[in-house]
Amino acid sequence: MNPRESITKQIHGLLERERRINIHRFPIQISNADGVATLEGEVGDIAAKKLALELAGSVPGLRGVVDRLRVAPGERRGDGAVRDSLARMFLEHGEFRNCTLRSHTNERTEILREGNGDSVGDIEIAVKDGVITLEGHVISVPHRLFAGVLAWWTPGRRDVVNALELQPRYEERDDEVTEALRLVLEADPAVDAAQIRPTCEDWVVTLAGNVPSEEHKRRAEMDAWYLSGVEKVVNKLTVTS
Length: 241
Hints:
The chain is α/β, with parallel strands linked by helices. The protein has helices at residues 3-17, 46-57, 79-92, 141-153, 174-187, 214-225; strands at residues 28-33, 36-43, 64-71, 99-105, 108-113, 121-128, 131-138, 159-162, 165-166, 196-201, 204-211, 232-239. The protein folds into three domains: 3-71, Histidine-containing Protein, Chain: A (2-Layer Sandwich); 79-166, no CATH class; 174-239, Histidine-containing Protein, Chain: A (2-Layer Sandwich).
C-alpha cells in the first residue's frame, strides 16, 4: 500500500469509528495529494462536520485538510429564500439593532439597514448553493459568534463561512465565548438557558446543568458546536424528567 492509500485508509477508519459521523448514512469522499487531504460530501449535523475535520487532521503525515463538507439542511430552499430569512433574523435581533446590514446577490449589494453612530458593525450576507458567507466587521467576539449561529439557524443553509472581523482588533478570550453561548441559548426557544451552565477553555465548551429531555440536551450541544472556532463540546447536561 502506497503512502497516499495508507492515509486515505487511516482517515476512513477514524471516520467509521466515530458514531457521530455515520459515514454509512452520510458517505464522505476522501482524497489526498501532496500531504493535503480533502473531505467532500454531506454530513448530518455541525458536530459531524467538525469531528470529521478534526479526525482527518490528526493523521500523521498530513500537512492540512481541505473542507468541502456540507451539512444536510432540514429543508431544501433556494439561495434567495435562505438570504431573506437570515436578513430578517438580523433585523429582528436586538444585539444587531445598530448594525449596518447588507445583502449581496448577483454582483450587486443592497443596503438593508444603516447603522447609527453607535453601530456594532457592518455585516454583508451572501448565499451560494446554500452556503452562507458573512463578511464585514463587528465590535466584539460575542457579536461575531452570535452572527454565525444565526446563520446556522437559517432554514435551508448547508454551510456557514463566518469571515467577520473584529474592529478594533483584540485578543479573543474564553469568557467572551461563554458570553456568546449564553446569548445563543437565551435566544433559542428550544432550550431553557436558565438550566444550563456553559463554560469555555481554549475553545473547548463544557455544558453542565439539568434539562427536561434528550432533545433539549442535543439542541444545547448543537448551539455550542455552531460557535465558529469551537473545537470540542463536552456535554455534561443531565436529563431529569
